[in-house]
Amino acid sequence: MEERLEKAGFEFDSEIVEKVLKRCFKVGNLALRFFNWLKHGVGFRHTSETYNTMIYIAGEAKEFIVVERLMREMEKDSCSKDIKTWTILISSYGKAKFIGKALFYFERMRKCGCEPDETVYKAIVNALCNAGKAEIAMEFYKEMVCKNIEVDMNLYKLLLNCLSRAGNISEVRSIGEDMMNVSQIPEQKVYSCILRSFCIARKIREALELLHELRNKDIMLDPENFEILVKGLCRDGKISDALEIVGIMKQNHEVDAKIYGIIINGYLRRNEVSKAFELFSSMKELGHTPTASTYTELLQQLFRFKEYARACKLYDEMLGNGIQQDIVAMTAVIAGHIQNNCVSEAWKIYEGMKEEKIRFTYKFYSVVIKELSKVLRTDEALELVNEMRHSKMEVGDNIFQGIISALSRKGGGEKADKVKQMWKTSKLYCQGNDVGGLNTEPQFLLKETESVVDMYKHKEPNQKLSSDQIQQCKVDFQLVSPSGECYCEHDLQKICSIFSSPLNWSSMQEALEKCTIHFTPELVLEVLRRCQLHGHAVLNFFSWVKQRAHYNHTTETYNMAIKISGCAKDFKHMRNLYLEMRRRGCTVTSDTWTIMIMQYGRAGLTDIALRKFEEMKFDGCKPSKSTFKYLIVLLCGKKGRKVDEAIKTFHQMINARHVPDKELVEIYLQCLCEEGKISDARWCMESLLKGGFSVPLSYSLVIRSLCRAGRLEEALALETEVGEEKHTLDQYIYGSLVHGLLRAGRVEEALAKVDTMKEGGVAPTVHVHTSLIVHFFKEKKIEKALEIFKRMREEGCAPTIVTYSALIRGYMNMGMVVDARNVFRRMKVKGPSPGFKTYSMFITCLCEMGRSEEAMQLINDMLDNGIFPSTVNFRTICYGLNREGKQDIARTVLQKKWALVSGRKFNQ
After folding, report:
1. Which InterPro entries match (predicted)?
2. CA 368, CA 375: separation in Å to the nearest integer?
């Protein structure tokens, strides 16, 4: 490109350059090369306008390192920064939610004597509102009003929404007054905007108060505003209030099928199916034709509750009424037919959709293929996979996994192997630009993936792939897989023994250089994994080994080194490793980002973890299921909890078509219930039902979380909502209800529940036994607690680590230290081995009893078992020793802590 430009002999002026850069907006790397070539190659001098354009392109691409460099170059070239420069900077950083940087440039603009104009103010207020910084946004808004800068309707709405979410109702009212008095916006329109903002922010009480206030003032709102309010009320579970609003609307004949549909949706969200159908019948009697979405929601509900005949009848009614079906309705009906083994009926609808040239979505394919796999119709499932490939649609891992599982259940092991081969090859081609030298043209990808599907489709069950085909797959896999080199176990043991010795790094380095070991990435990775606790040594080893001839680190080795640095809270070195990884051309995968996010989050730095999550997406790396899971777990944790961000991230995870696992759901729901976000917990439950979780399991997860959060009455109320499958649900939630009742002091009810389940043939679970042991120890009834422990073992119910921990805590609270130690010793010898939580609990109990020196011995025990003590463990022991007047020993403990912490970091 540069050679051709030089040969062309063009004369460049700033106007032409600016236009060329603007044309290159979507190919920022080319724009930057052209920009730099002009500067160094043809004697062209850049102007403020060309710098502004280039800064704008870099800012929109979120390349802020380039933005900062351009700013420095601008100063070096003596190009003045005008109002446009500052606006671009503030807007770019604001859009990326780097609010601190946006505010920094706003202040710097003022110091440079450049007065902010309307565009600058709008950019900064926009950024602050989107970041949820309501108070700061309000300050800038007040400045705009004082300077008589016009505020448009979009900015007013943005401010109202932000302030409503923040709960600043008085400020919302203040903005409303300004809209009427300053901007002369009609009163009705202003109140409409305020009502909408309350509903968006789920401030339902405030929305209802405003509605009553408007009725008293005889101000009538548009039907659209009533619709927003009804939707908000139903989403919040307040259907009786929504019906009251509908009553007001009926007085003006403003109720239509859409409003009825919203109420029906509200009933369905609460699992009040009978009420939903009653209202459905009533609206038809009143002459309203239900919408397609209402029919679809009811169909989904009927299929979910296995009312197949009734669902088919409703679908026929929908067709008879001439309702235009959408892809969602057809997906629900096809899935329902397959669930009831009427695959031919489902296929007729599918063929009809193809004839009508309806565009199939990823969701359609994934749902239908999943249902086909469940009923072991793998041929039809693979046919749909082929259709997806023809449509240039990526086939997700969950789809392949479902088909492979179905083939395995059918006994088609060989076919399952072929589909696994297909899956791996498909993943290879989907990597596109991540694989060096791979053609990423759509036609190429489509052709190759089609051939893979056809390879399976046209082979007979007993026919094997040719040697050429197998060899081609091997070559392809080498592009993305590890080289497969082995290492000698003796070499591994030798290196690990060096790192576990008391030598300093220079002595270790000498020992390593004397070894005649051939270092491979696999060997280095295993060394890093096994010697994580010796962070200083292995991180220096990591730095040393990369300088060896014929050795190169891989993505996996970098990921492990980043993890070790993060575990030691050496975030500076962690960041350096990440940058080095990029410089050396190693692929930064979603695992790399996940590790960094996890390490920041575990240290309680959830703001930085969230920023890294945003950076990950800006970098073009798609978050994996693990990324979402660990981020949500961190946001739900006690340290640095951010429940609103957790809800937002969970929704993103669902929208990205990742199904959360049971562990994540339990943590997320418990956080919601502890914070009183019950409507969000219900939404989660509904999404689980849609994702394939059974009704009893979905309900049980919410009920357990409510019990753990001390919301027993709400848990009991939710239990009554389940119909036919209540018996199954009772078995799931049995332990949680007993635990909740005991915590609430309702012992008789808890014991009655245990007896009832026994009569029904359900034996007490380990959860129930453990809850009873904890309760009786708390009541100082040690004989009763030990009797239950003895009984559970006789009944063949194996105690868990939680049970043994409860025994230790119970003994310690009763002052029976010897018995507690015997239980702890038994765990170490026979299992289950004590984990970090058990050690921490035992340390705390010993210190509280004035036996801090004994607790100090547990630190060495933890290290011997590969468990690194936390800062809290050391702090508890130091406080205990100081209370006991053993300051010298406390200082020794602190020195040990500092030595351990520094021994895990790259630079001691």
Report:
1. PPR_P_subfamily, PPR_rpt, TPR-like_helical_dom_sf
2. 11
Residue with tokens 């951010």: 642
For residues 415 and 404, what is the distance between their CA atoms, to the nearest angstrom?
A: 8
Mean pLDDT of 44-49: 83
Q: How far apart are CA 314 and CA 326, in angstroms?
A: 15
What whole-number distance in Å separates Cα of residue 271 and Cα of residue 356? Answer: 35
What distances in angstroms separate CA 22 from CA 10, 120, 391, one per listed residue?
18, 21, 33
Q: Residue 296 is encoded by which pair of tokens?
A: 């679809």
How far apart (Å, rounded) are the C-alpha atoms in residues 432 and 531?
35
Q: Rg of the Cα trace of the chain?
A: 33
> Which has more confidence, 435 or 592?
592
Sorted by sequence, the CB contacts under 8 Å of residue 727 that are 6+ apart come out as 760
What's the residue count for the chain? 908
Rounded to whole angstroms, the Cα distance separating 807 from 827 reads 11
pTM for the whole thing?
0.47
Q: What is the structure's pLDDT at 284?
A: 85
Q: What span, in angstroms and rounded, lies between the C-alpha atoms of 430 and 883?
A: 62
Task: Report cis status (omega within 30 of 0) of the bond before 442.
Answer: no
- Rounded to whole angstroms, the Cα distance separating 715 from 720 reads 9
Angle ∠(131,133,138) on CA atoms, nearest 5 = 130
Helix ranges, 691-814 (H): 695-708, 712-719, 726-743, 747-759, 766-778, 782-794, 801-813
Q: Which of 459, 451, 458 is nearest to 476 (CA)?
A: 451
Place of tokens 């868990």: 800
> Hunting for tokens 């202040």 — which residue is that?
107
Contacts of 426 (CB under 8 A, 6+ apart): 395, 400, 449, 452
Question: pLDDT for 567-609, tens place per residue?
Answer: 888 889 999 999 988 888 888 899 999 999 999 888 888 889 9
Q: Which of 96, 100, 95, 150 is nearest to 121 (CA)?
A: 150
Contacts of residue 75, Cβ cutoff 8 Å, sequence gap at least 6: none
CB atoms within 10 A of CB 8: 7
